[in-house]
Hints:
Elements: H1 3-94, H2 98-115, E1 120-123, H3 125-135, E2 138-142, E3 149-152, E4 159-161, H4 164-183
Parallel strand pairs: 1-2
Antiparallel strand pairs: 1-3, 3-4
Amino acid sequence: MSLENVIKEINNSVEQQANTVISKGKKEANAILQKTQEKINKSKEKTIEKTAEIVSSIERTEIASLQLVLKKQFLNAKKEVIDEVFDEAKKKLKNLPDMQKQKILKKLLIKGKKEVNAKHFYSNLKDKKLVSKLSGLKFRKEIDCIGGFVLENDDNTISSDQTFDLILEKVREKHISEISRRVFVK
């Protein structure tokens, strides 16, 4: 065998070994790349899931917050309407015809005299004359009210508030849910 043939064989053998190493290297590199790509895909999926959860949580929070704001606005609007209803009732009570007012004041006097042994009363100036005539009591002092009166005993220790203002407020407190249902029929 000649030297050239030996060199050729060595070159062929080295080339074969190099090709085998290169082939193995490519296989290992492909396996590493495939594993890395799988890890990237899993990480990407987890990131997408977490992002979706975060977005969903933010959406739920925003929706709940918006619903709360809307509910508050709705309740405020309902309160304003009920306030308007009571303001209208106050106007009507303030401007009752004398005969109607007289009937109401008589009933209130009967109720008030059961509560207190009255010697004098307080009222607005508009009702002063009528209450005095109906009750036979002394007028003590003007008070700011839409109508009615406050009866008081001789030593000023016991009183009975029969003002339209207080009566309206008691009606409002006691029957607010019924009033709300009637005003806001669904």
